[in-house]
Q: What sequence folds into this?
């Protein structure tokens, strides 16, 4: 009698292979999470370009410790006040994210080099930095002074006050309030020196073709302040045809003036009996910041990771 064969179930090798692949994939994902993702979740946020942060700070002139800016009401005890809402954008090439319009990229008296130093800091962390003039608002630039102001200012300027002719129309445009008549004396310096009562002139002749002859009348020993430069100058009359404007220029004298929308800060770098050498700066927020090292203490209060969001 023939024996019966025992039927064995077939092994599902395909399913086993798929399961093995899934196990490997899951293991790789777990490894990736443990190496890359989990550490970042466990560690505190650090400041990156594009983040919105709140920060307390004190800014001082390094040379004497004078506080020029702070977020505290009491910078000695570091109390009171309101943290600065700052958008970290040291290259000034990013737009402030939507919803953070109250944040600024450029707090007053805080240069971008100081803001760059915040990158990498954590919430609650404090940092002290000192920046050189080259890292803040620059030094006195003699080449820029030469370009914009001539660089060298003469101590003595010799002028002639011989008679000068000017057309009636040009005279009227320049001195509309002056009565055009021979022997009329008028204030020439109000227009040309921007100082009233300093230099008079006299109409000495009016020709048939309406050319007006004027003669300057400098007063020997008359002293006045030169506008913008803010130093004293004196008229020295040499003879009937020549006079000198002598400027009393002191070493380290500083002054500033506006030209269109630009403020020029100036300083006398060197002076001798013949000339004064000027330096200029157009980057500082005010004149006391020129050629100064600045020290800052920062404390990060809050970090919002807007660097990882779309604007």
A:
């Amino acid at each position: 009698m023939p024996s019966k064969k025992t039927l064995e179930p077939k092994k599902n090798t395909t399913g086993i292979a798929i399961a093995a692949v899934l196990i490997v994939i899951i293991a790789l994902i777990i490894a990736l999470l443990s190496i890359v993702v989990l550490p970042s979740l466990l560690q505190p946020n650090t400041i990156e370009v594009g983040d919105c942060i709140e920060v307390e700070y004190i800014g001082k002139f390094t040379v004497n410790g004078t506080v020029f800016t702070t977020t505290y009401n009491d910078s000695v005890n570091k109390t009171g006040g309101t943290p600065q809402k700052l958008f970290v954008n040291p290259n000034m090439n990013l737009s402030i994210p939507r919803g953070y319009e109250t944040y600024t990229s450029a707090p007053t008296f805080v240069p971008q080099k100081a803001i760059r130093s915040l990158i990498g800091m954590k919430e609650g962390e404090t940092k002290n930095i000192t920046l050189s003039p080259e890292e803040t608002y620059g030094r006195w630039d003699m080449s820029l002074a030469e370009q914009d102001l001539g660089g060298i200012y003469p101590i003595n300027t010799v002028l002639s006050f011989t008679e000068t002719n000017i057309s009636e129309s040009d005279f009227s445009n320049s001195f509309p309030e002056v009565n055009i008549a021979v022997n009329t004396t008028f204030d020439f310096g109000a227009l040309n020196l921007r100082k009233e009562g300093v230099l008079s002139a006299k109409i000495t002749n009016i020709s048939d073709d309406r050319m007006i002859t004027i003669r300057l009348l400098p007063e020997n020993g008359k002293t006045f302040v030169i506008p913008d430069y803010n130093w004293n100058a004196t008229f020295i009359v040499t003879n009937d045809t020549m006079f000198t404007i002598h400027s009393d220029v002191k070493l380290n004298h500083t002054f500033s003036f506006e030209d269109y929308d630009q403020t020029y800060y100036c300083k006398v770098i060197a002076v001798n009996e013949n000339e004064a050498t000027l330096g200029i700066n157009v980057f500082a927020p005010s004149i006391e910041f020129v050629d100064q090292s600045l020290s800052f203490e920062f404390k990060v209060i809050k970090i919002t990771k807007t660097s990882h969001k779309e604007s």
In short: The CA atoms of residues 157 and 245 lie 5 Å apart. The longest helix spans residues 13-42. The mean pLDDT is 87. The helical segments are 13-42, 112-116, 142-149, 168-174, 189-192.
